[in-house]
């Protein structure tokens, strides 16, 4: 207990410091400008010398600008990333030896639950929203999102959601009897229905709130992509990232509200003695069906936009257009549809009807094709290309390599006989971590580096970025490959200890593999510290970007719309007499900045 | 929404692009046939109906979406060609801003 | 949510614009306090619910605290919504411009998400219908769930959809008086429906002793009718707003975006009700 208290206190201390730092930085951001040298123009950072936003921290509470909201999403997601990361490092430390050494099972379970929920709902979805908010309007030539205020609301629902989800950790040290939930991220009934702890209710409520936020965002994105495109953008030249966000939003539209209803039903079961998931009512299996009907689309909600990011960034450093662009578009849509027909592959071992189970296997095997198609497209894009191994590119390549392992292990699991052996072992954990860490986090990092110059007007430190990549790549593969082997040895998932007898699994090998993956996890952790330092330091002191084309994309004819926008902003900041629109890809009715660009070109 | 497409909409090239979704459809079709022919678990009105509807419904949904999106993209391509605009997702990338003359489309029906 | 969407009215898809030029206390162009206030109010609902749960599971708080926070949040939420919507209205009204395509589209999307919201409840019902259909409450055994009250209520709701439709038609014909009258009738019918539902709950709970804890069917019954009731209530609020705006003469044949979004919502809620009556009321006793 003492150790838990200590760990918690340290954790909360770190959080408080982080929050304090964040707040003080926000105040500093009075001078934040999206462009390096833009302070010349009236301090607002936006054209024309008249302020469109209040100064200081108020700006961040009141903004309805999609770019600012994107930054807020990004910061939120990264705070969550560190919370989830801290939780898992504690867990890995506990697993370095078979016994209970540094924490009790209850605390391990709480960390496990918080890690999963945080990474999927508070890091994954928001980090994607950060990129889509900032860049979708720029990429499609829109002025802003279709509903800027709904956009702001959707963001501001998230911090209270996170506080509710994490609440148990804050109240536990006070001894009030409100402890963190120990339900795992899947919240299976009857376990989740029977834990009397109010922390579970708080988590369910917080999750519901974040779900509302995600749904509002999804409606906004679909409406934006359908109705706000610039005049020169239509379905034929819509960029790949927007396609994946469109598909993702459609998935959110049906998946999250369903989860919302299921959460409410669970809350009613817990508090008002209803029978939604009780044996004499809908049965615990109903929860699994509802949860996975949401849950499988959710994994594609998380992975499709990263696939879009890689499809967008990879060609830029291969010197070639994305190979088979249309294939990537149609296979994205195919994944979107099929992902609603595979949910029961998470339930193969529940004793469901074998005929129905077989069907889910069929559709699950089918969904692997569109995923594989993309992999081939990325590889052929690089084939014979002129590769430039910048940090964003490295992360893209790492992404592909990790997806090969993550995807193939998924296909194995989709086969019923294999799954019956491997279900609920570390093999499954290895499978999805190759994807969530190896792909989603990697693509997020790659995109952060790629767009760092636009967002901050500065350049990051390239050497540190490469350190970050290699530490992440090596750490990820050590950690999660060990998971796959552990799974083959029969190590069950979700346990704080593994002092089992040799008949279940060979203890010596299992211990070694656990230690290997703990080492790997800490390597990842160190990599992220390097990254955090790089981001903060470069934002303050990095070299300012002089040229709007930091990646030399013009040479290859790959100067995307977002960088075209950036260039227009820079030109305006450098004293173009023409007032530039605050926003948008230059769809001013009179042809706005494009004319300004051309004039400079002509000189 | 499913108005009669003219022959040009689904030309060879578009069909070739859509092949990518024919493969998962083929796999689903394959399993439908296999499960219809090989039936080790016996039949049961409810469960067999669910068994086949999972595959048929997802397959049909994929078919419809592929058709609709293929049609939309292909028509959009023709539109771009008519206006002499670029097909690439990085339109205007090489500084050919001349080609991006805004076309007046009116979609606001207040 | 639907009201919130009404917000972003004064925008057109073309040309450059700033979203929040007119705002309180000061228009900046890209800054507004209202989203933050509204989100805070919305989060307050969840915090109120949390406090209530904490009060029932520990003895840290009185049970009244949670509901009090909840009610307070309602005011905060409405204030945020009002400020926000008001600024959008004024702008939209004076500019005479609408963002109608986006708004209609957003409403269709929202209704799509509603299908999923209701879907979970209906799936539960189908689960118990096929596997836990026993120990039925007296109301179902006797067939009394499908009372004449429900039938009358259903007819009322269907009629309200018809009147709303013709109100819209009248607006298109620029027949303002007829539009107002039919819209008023619709609103009235909606309120009567809600009253009828309340009466039904009262009858069932007080006289029939049929509460939400009475087993599998009761969970489905109160879950689904409750969810639907919330939707009708929101629909009535929306129609109320539309009605007030109509009284101010803010609509005509060309400016009818929120009339049509509110109608879509109302028709949807109506359709759900019919489905609900067929499977949950009639289906329970017919195929028993
Ligand atoms: C190639 C396509 C894929 C296939 C065929 C596939 C198949 C599967 C199967 C059958 C399982 C269940 C294993 C079990 O519990 O016994 C599973 C678990 C999982 N998959 Fe995948 N998968 C694929 C891609 C993905 C992707 C792209 C993601 C994430 C973005 C993902 C995330 C997950 C997660 C999170 C779980 C574990 C859920 C849990 O039980 O906690 N999978 N996958
Ligand atoms: Cu899955």
Characterization of the model:
The complex is a heterotrimer of chains A (603), B (110) and C (288). Chain A is built from 19 helices and no strands. By secondary structure, chain A is mainly α. Chain A has one domain: Cytochrome C Oxidase, Chain A, CATH 1.20.210. Chain A starts with a helix and ends with a helix. Chain B is an all-alpha fold and 110 residues long. Chain B is built from 2 helices and no strands. The radius of gyration of chain B is 21 Å and the shape is elongated. In chain C, helix 2 (34-57) packs antiparallel against helix 3, helix 4 packs parallel to helix 9 (257-286) and helix 6 (148-172) runs antiparallel to helix 7 (176-207). Chain C is mainly α. Helix content of chain C is 75%, strand content 0%. Chain C is built from 9 helices and no strands. Chain C has helices spanning 2-6, 34-57, 65-95, 100-131, 138-141, 148-172, 176-207, 216-247, 257-286. The interface between A and C is large, with 85 and 73 residues. Copper (II) ion is lined by residues 296, 299, 342, 345-346 of chain A. Residues 186, 299, 302-303, 345-346, 364, 367-368, 371, 407, 410-411, 413-414, 419, 423, 428, 431-432, 435-436 of chain A line the site of protoporphyrin IX containing FE.
């Amino acid at each position: 207990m003492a150790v838990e208290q200590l760990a918690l206190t340290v954790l909360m201390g770190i959080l408080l410091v982080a929050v304090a730092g964040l707040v003080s930085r926000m105040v500093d951001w009075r001078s934040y400008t999206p462009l390096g040298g833009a302070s010349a123009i009236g301090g607002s950072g936006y054209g024309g010398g008249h302020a469109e936003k209040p100064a200081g921290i108020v700006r961040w509470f009141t903004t309805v600008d999609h770019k600012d909201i994107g930054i807020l999403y990004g910061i939120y997601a990264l705070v969550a990333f560190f919370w989830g990361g801290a939780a898992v490092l504690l867990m890995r430390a506990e697993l370095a030896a078979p016994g209970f050494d540094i924490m009790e099972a209850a605390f391990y379970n709480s960390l496990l639950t918080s890690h999963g929920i945080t990474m999927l709902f508070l890091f994954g979805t928001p980090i994607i929203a950060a990129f889509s908010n900032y860049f979708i309007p720029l990429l499609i030539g829109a002025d802003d999102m279709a509903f800027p205020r709904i956009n702001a609301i959707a963001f501001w629902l998230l911090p209270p959601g996170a506080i509710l989800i994490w609440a148990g950790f804050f109240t536990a040290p006070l001894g009030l009897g409100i402890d963190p939930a120990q339900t795992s991220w899947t919240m299976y009934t009857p376990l989740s229905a029977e834990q009397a702890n109010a922390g579970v209710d708080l988590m369910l409520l917080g999750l519901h709130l974040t779900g509302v936020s995600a749904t509002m965002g999804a409606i906004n994105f679909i409406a934006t992509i359908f109705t706000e495109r610039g005049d020169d953008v239509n379905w034929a030249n819509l960029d790949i990232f927007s396609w994946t966000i469109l598909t993702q939003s459609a998935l959110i539209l049906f998946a999250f509200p369903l989860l919302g209803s299921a959460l409410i039903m669970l809350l009613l079961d817990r508090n008002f003695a209803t029978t939604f998931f009780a044996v004499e009512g809908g049965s615990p299996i109903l929860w699994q069906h509802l949860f996975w009907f949401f849950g499988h689309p959710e994994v594609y909600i998380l992975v499709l936009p990263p696939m879009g990011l890689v499809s967008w960034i990879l060609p830029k450093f291969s010197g070639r257009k994305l190979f088979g662009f249309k294939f990537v578009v149609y296979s994205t849509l195919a994944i979107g549809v099929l992902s609603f027909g595979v949910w029961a592959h998470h339930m193969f071992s529940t004793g469901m009807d074998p005929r129905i189970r077989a069907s889910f296997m069929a559709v699950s095997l089918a969904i692997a094709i569109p995923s594989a198609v993309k992999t081939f497209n990325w590889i052929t894009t690089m084939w014979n290309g002129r590769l430039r191994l910048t940090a964003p590119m490295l992360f893209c390549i790492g992404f592909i390599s990790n997806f090969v392992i993550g995807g193939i292990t998924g296909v194995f699991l989709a086969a019923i006989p294999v799954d019956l052996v491997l279900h609920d072992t570390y093999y499954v954990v290895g499978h999805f971590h190759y994807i969530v860490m190896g792909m989603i986090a990697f693509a997020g990092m790659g995109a952060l580096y790629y767009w760092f110059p636009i967002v901050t007007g500065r350049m990051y430190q390239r050497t540190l970025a490469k350190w970050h990549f290699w530490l992440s790549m090596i750490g990820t593969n050590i950690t999660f490959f060990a998971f796959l082997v552990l799974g083959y040895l029969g190590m069950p998932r979700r346990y704080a200890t593994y002092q089992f007898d040799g008949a279940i699994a060979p203890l010596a090998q299992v211990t070694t593999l656990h230690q290997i993956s703990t080492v790997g996890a800490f390597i990842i952790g160190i990599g992220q510290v390097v990254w955090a330092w790089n981001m903060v330091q470069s934002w303050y002191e990095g070299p300012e970007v002089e040229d709007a084309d930091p990646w030399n994309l013009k040479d290859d004819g790959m100067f995307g719309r977002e960088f075209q926008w950036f260039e227009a902003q820079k030109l305006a900041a450098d004293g173009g007499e023409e007032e530039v629109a605050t926003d948008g890809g230059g769809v001013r009715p009179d042809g706005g900045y494009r004319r300004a660009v051309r004039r400079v070109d002509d000189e | 929404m499913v108005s009669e497409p003219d022959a040009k909409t689904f030309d060879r090239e578009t069909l070739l692009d859509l092949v990518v979704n024919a493969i998962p459809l083929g796999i689903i079709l394959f399993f439908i046939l296999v499960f219809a022919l090989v039936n080790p678990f016996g039949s049961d009105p409810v469960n067999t109906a669910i068994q086949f509807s999972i595959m048929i419904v997802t397959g049909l949904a994929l078919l419809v979406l592929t058709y609709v999106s293929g049609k939309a993209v292909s028509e959009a391509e023709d539109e771009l060609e008519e206006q002499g605009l670029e097909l690439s997702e990085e339109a205007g990338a090489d500084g050919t801003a001349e080609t991006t003359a805004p076309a007046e489309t009116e979609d606001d029906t207040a | 949510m639907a009201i919130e969407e009404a917000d972003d009215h004064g925008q057109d898809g073309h040309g450059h614009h700033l979203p929040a030029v007119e705002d309180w206390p000061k228009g900046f162009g890209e800054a507004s306090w209202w989203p933050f206030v509204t989100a805070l109010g919305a989060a307050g609902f969840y915090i109120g619910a949390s406090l209530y749960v904490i009060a029932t599971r520990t003895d840290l708080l009185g049970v009244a605290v949670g509901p009090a926070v909840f009610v307070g949040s309602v005011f905060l939420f409405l204030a945020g919504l009002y400020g926000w919507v008001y600024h959008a209205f004024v702008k939209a009204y004076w500019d005479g411009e609408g963002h109608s395509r986006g708004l209609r589209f957003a409403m269709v999307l929202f209704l799509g998400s509603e299908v999923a919201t209701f879907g979970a409840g209906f799936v539960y019902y189908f689960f118990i219908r096929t596997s836990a259909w026993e120990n039925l409450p007296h109301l179902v055994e006797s067939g009394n769930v499908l009372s004449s009250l429900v039938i009358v209520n259903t007819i009322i709701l269907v009629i309200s959809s018809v009147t709303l439709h013709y109100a819209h038609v009248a607006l298109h014909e620029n027949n303002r008086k007829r539009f107002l009258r039919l819209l008023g009738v619709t609103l009235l019918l909606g309120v009567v429906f809600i009253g009828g539902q309340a009466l039904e709950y009262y009858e069932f709970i007080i006289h029939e002793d049929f509460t939400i804890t009475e087993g599998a069917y009761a969970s489905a019954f109160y879950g689904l009718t409750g969810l639907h009731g919330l939707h009708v209530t929101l629909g009535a609020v929306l129609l109320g707003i539309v009605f007030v705006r109509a009284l101010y003469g803010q609509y005509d044949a060309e400016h009818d975006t929120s009339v049509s979004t509110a109608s879509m919502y109302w028709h949807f809620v109506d359709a759900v009700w019919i489905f609900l009556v067929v499977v949950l009321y009639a289906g329970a006793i017919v195929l028993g």
